[in-house]
Write a structure and sequence with these properties.
Layout: E1 3-4, H1 6-16, H2 29-39, E2 47-48, H3 49-64, E3 68-73, H4 77-80, H5 99-108, E4 113-119, E5 153-156, E6 162-165, E7 197-201, E8 204-209, E9 212-217, H6 240-247, E10 251-257, H7 259-272, E11 276-285, H8 289-301, E12 305-307, H9 312-316, H10 323-333, H11 339-359
Parallel strand pairs: 3-4, 3-10, 4-9, 10-11, 11-12
Antiparallel strand pairs: 1-2, 5-6, 7-8, 8-9
Helix pairs in contact: 2-10, 3-10, 6-11, 7-8
């Protein structure tokens, strides 16, 4: 009868949401109803032919054929064996342990895009504890410049007043500590960026290399930048969103250092921007066990998923299709301003242009 009921939509979801071994993921009934409502635009209790066309093109095709970006966060010398070696923090985790599983993913999984982020701080950066006397402290700060210690949080006067966690001096631009670890697989790393080009956009640096893009963050001395998307005050972005939109990315796989700081902030910003976000647990190491657990709970409650690296290949290839990510996509399709909706629109326009070019007679 050219229309789908909720029961028939449920059967489609049973076929759609399963892994590469045939295991069917259970989708809660309330989520099935919410997803159904996204496509039942005229609210008549059915998905008609026109509504299903939208469902097919914008939802099912993305679930089956996602466009996946791999985002490797801050796998830099200072976090592994340098001035901010995370093994010296309370969780006592070894940052070196992320390199082997990350390299294996780079070798075995055909991501559509790969990004490497780097903390890239000027020497007078606000986060360095030895710079604390360079800026006035706000009267409401629980600590002052004389009694604050590393890892404490103070409030700088601004304007506006700004909370800041204090770190050892780390990842200073062009220092050994700021370099990606030598064992991490990165193209064109061996010399002074001979095959790449630097772009300076919105006061952030972005370097395009042969098989990936390096994104430099934390370049503003007055504000820290945990997330690879934005600085901590949301004053400027790093152009990562523009790069993801250009590539039509739908899914972002996030990993690196530190789990509960820059990795977590990046994953949460990816979810806020509307991306289907996957956190790769065994490719991350962190600072504080409680904060790591809090990061995980925030990602899950925001409709992201946490997986091990062995699960990634099947997900990227569309053979392991998680209902949480399908639900996330459906909710984003309600919001035409989300990055994911814009990416889908760009991808659809590109496909239409390619079809038109193919249909044109050759000269």
């Amino acid at each position: 009868d050219d229309r789908l009921s909720l029961n028939e939509f449920t059967l489609i979801c049973r076929a759609l949401f399963r892994n590469d071994k045939g295991h069917i993921y259970v989708v809660p009934s309330d989520r099935l109803e919410q997803m159904f409502a996204v496509f039942d635009k005229n609210e008549d209790g059915y998905i008609d032919r026109e509504e299903f066309q939208f469902c097919w093109n914008q939802w099912i095709k993305t679930i089956v054929r996602p466009i996946s970006a791999f985002l490797i966060v801050d796998v830099q010398n200072d976090f592994i064996s340098g001035s901010l070696n995370i093994s010296n923090c309370s969780a006592q985790q070894n940052g070196l342990e992320v390199i082997e599983p990350i390299n294996k993913l780079l070798d075995t999984v055909d991501f559509d895009a790969v990004f490497y982020s780097l903390d890239w701080h000027p020497s007078d950066h606000v986060s360095f504890i030895d710079n604390i006397k360079q800026r006035p402290i706000h009267p409401t700060s629980p600590l002052n410049a004389d009694n604050a210690q590393v890892y404490d949080t103070v409030i700088f006067a601004g304007p506006p007043p700004m909370k800041q966690r204090l770190w050892p001096r780390h990842c200073v631009q062009d220092s050994w500590g700021s370099e990606l670890h030598k064992d991490l697989k990165v193209e064109d790393r061996s010399s002074a960026y001979p095959n790449g080009r630097f772009l300076n956009i919105s006061n952030s640096l972005l370097q395009v290399v042969e098989h990936g893009v390096k994104v430099y963050k934390g370049t503003n001395p007055e504000v820290d930048s945990y997330s690879v998307f934005w600085d901590n005050k949301k004053l400027s972005d790093t152009t990562l969103c523009a790069q993801l939109r250009l590539k039509g990315s739908t899914d972002i796989y996030v990993c690196g250092l530190a789990y509960d700081v820059c990795v977590g902030a990046t994953a949460i910003d990816a979810l806020s921007a509307g991306y289907r976000t996957i956190l790769i647990d065994d490719c991350c190491r962190g600072v504080d066990l409680n904060d790591i657990e809090s990061t995980k709970q925030t990602v899950i409650s925001s409709n992201g998923v946490i997986v091990s690296s062995r699960e990634v290949k099947a997900m990227v290839e569309g053979r392991d299709r998680r209902p949480e990510l399908g639900y996330k996509l459906a909710m984003e399709l309600k919001n035409s301003e989300s990055d994911l909706s814009k990416n889908n629109a760009c991808r659809r326009q590109s496909q239409q242009q390619q079809q038109q070019q193919q249909q044109q007679p050759s000269q």
